[in-house]
Amino acid sequence: MATVRNLKIKTSTCKRILKELHSYEKEVEREAAKTVDMKEKGADPYDLKQQENVLAESRMMVPDCRKRLEGALEDLKGTLVMCNMLLPISASFNAFTLLGFPPLKLPPPHPREKLRTQNS
């Protein structure tokens, strides 16, 4: 059964991976600019090749990080669906906000339940 603790852990995991993705994207931009600068300045071919390898490694990390983020988000969505009725809104608000959709609403009561409450 999902708990508030599990929900917090999965939300934090998504936040961490998202932060990591932004970091890798910035790194790719930085390394690409450095590579272009080295080419313009006529840097040593060996140094240029090493810089291109660094840029290639940085570029490889972006799709990997996106894939991990997609998996973590799917895991978080599954947990939210399972525990939406069990947790208070305040506990799941942070996770729902991260995913970009409003909290799930409880399904309407079954017609028999309505009759029981009216007859009581």
From TrEMBL:
Q: Which SUPFAM superfamilies match?
A: Tubulin chaperone cofactor A
One Pfam family matching this protein: TBCA
According to its UniProt record, where is this protein mainly located?
cytoplasm
Keyword annotations of the record: Chaperone, Cytoplasm, Cytoskeleton, Microtubule
Q: Where, if anywhere, are coiled coils annotated? A: none
Question: Where's it found, cell-wise?
Answer: Cytoplasm, Cytoskeleton
Q: Note whether Chaperone occurs among the keywords.
A: yes
Name of the protein in question: Tubulin-specific chaperone A
Q: Which organism is it from?
A: Solanum tuberosum (Potato)
